[in-house]
Design a protein that fits this description.
Shape: globular
Strand content: 5-15%
Order of helices and strands: EHEHHHHHHEEHHHHE
Distance between the termini: 19 Å
Number of strands: 5
Radius of gyration: 18 Å
Helix content: 55-70%
Amino acid sequence: MVKTRLIDDFICLPAAALIALAIGTGAAQAADAGDTTANTPPAEIKMQFHAPDADAKNDDPLEPINRVTSEFNSLFRGLILDPLIDGYKAVTPEGMQRAISNAASNLSEPITAVSSFLQGDTDNAGNATKRFLVNSTLGVGGLGDPAKDMGIESRQEDLGQAFGAGGMEAGPHIVLPILGPSNLRDATGDILTTLANPLPFVGKAAQGTVTYSDNQEAIKAATNNSLDPYTTEKALYEQHRQWEVTNGASSAPADGPTLAEEGPSLATKPER
């Protein structure tokens, strides 16, 4: 059994890592001043692996290309991203790391507000808007999370979830170079988000990198202990994305990986 808090779509972005490090420079003063408004660690997710069903529906017409891209991403993580993250963790105090995580999360709140509104979830759209305004001001650009202290909790949403909640199928599985696993629906949502306003997507990307830095060993164990890392990574992504689309109402198939939330937050993601 491998336990990890967030494995955010296995998104391992070098650019986002650099963004996170850049944010860290600005976060140093707030962290050194003893910022006590940082987010508490999110709920953990536990993963259990089962043998795949040989007769399962083929939803991966791009598998040959996806496998090549997945191998490239694995090499990229090992040769470039992992050393970069190791260096970041070695030189960055824990308080600053939390401030960076807060700032990245705050930048993604506009995505949550719009995506929630599209689903008719005006309560969460309002919460996301209030969180962004409060944390951008009282939280010094999002480095702190005073909104949480006020009882305004975060439940993150994105356009892919909004499309899925509206009935759009996930479509073919896609492994993007460096960005990692996705599918046609989710990739379309991310592209539209970036075209409309790249800043929130930068926040999501940076948050994914910070998340990866917190869960390197668990992510490696999840794939290294698998007979077919590509299939494991794909199953984790697709099953948990469905879990997110339904806000935790769906469960894993009997023959697939199981990701069970151990806390009340619905803002958790499999990496994010």
